[in-house]
Write a structure and sequence with these properties.
This protein has one domain. With 89 residues, the chain is mostly helical. Helices cover 87% and strands 0% of the residues. It is built from three helices and no strands. It is flat. This is Na(+) H(+) antiporter subunit F. InterPro entries: MrpF/PhaF-like. One of its GO terms (molecular function) is sodium:proton antiporter activity. Its main location: membrane.
């Protein structure tokens, strides 16, 4: 039962990943692309956590945490650049 749930979750996350990639490609505005890329990284983080739990490998949790931090900083920087036209004053 446990393996079935992991398999279903992995397949579902992969489908969501593919839909997010298509949404990033076909988005009309820059802000929608920023949000779609943020969603894409959240799905990748969820896949890393799922993989870490399935294989009992805790170092993938470190990679997920690092990706989450980088994603947050990149999203804030991209949104600020889009709104103000520059990153720093």
């Amino acid at each position: 039962m446990h393996e079935t749930v992991f398999a279903f979750a992995a397949v579902w996350m992969t489908v969501l990943l593919a839909v997010s990639v298509l949404y990033v490609i076909h988005a009309r505005s820059a802000m929608v692309r920023i949000l779609a890329l943020d969603t894409l990284t959240l799905i990748l983080i969820a896949l890393l956590i799922l993989y870490a739990d399935a294989n009992r490998a805790p170092y993938f949790l470190d990679a997920a945490l690092a990706l989450a931090l980088l994603s947050f900083v990149a999203s804030v920087a991209a949104a600020r650049y889009h709104s103000e036209g520059r990153l720093f004053r």
